[in-house]
Design goal:
The chain has 206 residues and is α/β, with parallel strands linked by helices. The chain has helices spanning 15-19, 35-43, 57-68, 106-118, 135-140, 146-155, 177-184, 198-204; strands spanning 7-8, 74-75, 88-90, 99-102, 123-127, 166-169, 187-190. The longest helix is centred in the middle third of the chain and has 13 residues, at 106-118. The radius of gyration is 17 Å and the shape is globular. Iron/sulfur cluster binds at residues 22-23, 25-30, 32, 34-35, 38, 52, 54.
Length: 206
């Protein structure tokens, strides 16, 4: 049974989660008392990310793009629309690009594609069969399964596309990490809860 809700959403970034991507020195050079205050102001579109002198231009540009994106929740009547579990190449990825695991809910895949394309992130996006559940609902309903991830990897011959067998799973699916690792024998890295922060996570882990 689906989790009761009238709107689904890609979790918007929260200031405390965003601040984990900042230097976290609370130096005050941006005019704020702490990195978390700066993050709050950036997310409210009151301050440009470039005001932190410790962020490189690429990181600040990426954050600025993320902040400008539409974070509107998805209407309930779009729930359960599915896409095929076929790998999607974003911005011409190469063998060192990350493999990003997601659900097969059409709107999640559409928005993740939009975020990654807008931020010029090179990646392989791999929808896995969750019966059209979004990631949070799929985890709740035990539909975010290691077996389905393994099947999607095999069906798409992903191992031949990348140098290292490493995948990034959504932060919302953290508790599935061990079962995915045990079944697939891939390294499993847990990404951020908010899909909007995925480009920053990838930049920080290059
Ligand atoms: S300048 Fe950067 S590191 Fe210093 S408090 Fe502001 S956000 Fe944090």
């Amino acid at each position: 049974m689906v989790v009761e809700q009238e709107m689904a959403e890609i979790y918007p970034p929260e200031a405390d989660e965003l601040s984990e991507f900042l230097p976290e020195t609370d130096c005050g050079n941006c005019g704020f008392g702490s990195c978390i205050e700066f993050a709050e102001s950036v997310l409210a579109k009151e301050t440009r990310p470039h005001k932190c002198p410790d962020l490189d231009d690429n990181f600040a540009d990426t954050l600025a793009t993320i902040v400008e994106m539409n974070k509107a929740p998805i209407p309930y009547n779009l729930m359960m629309e599915q896409v095929p579990c076929e790998i999607i190449e974003i911005n011409s990825p190469d063998k060192d690009s990350p493999v990003l695991i997601t659900c097969n809910f059409q709107e999640t895949v559409r928005i993740m594609k939009e975020i990654l394309e807008a931020t010029s992130t090179e990646a392989f996006l791999l929808p896995t069969h969750t019966h059209g559940y979004s990631v949070d609902n799929a985890v709740h309903e035990k539909m975010f399964k290691a077996m389905e991830i393994w099947k999607a990897i095999k069906d798409n011959a992903v191992e031949a596309r990348v140098e290292r067998p490493t995948m990034i799973i959504p932060g919302l699916a953290e508790k599935e990490r061990n079962s995915i690792r045990q079944l697939t024998r891939w390294e499993v890295v847990v990404g951020p809860v908010s899909g909007f922060l995925l480009p920053l996570f990838i930049l920080n882990n290059k």
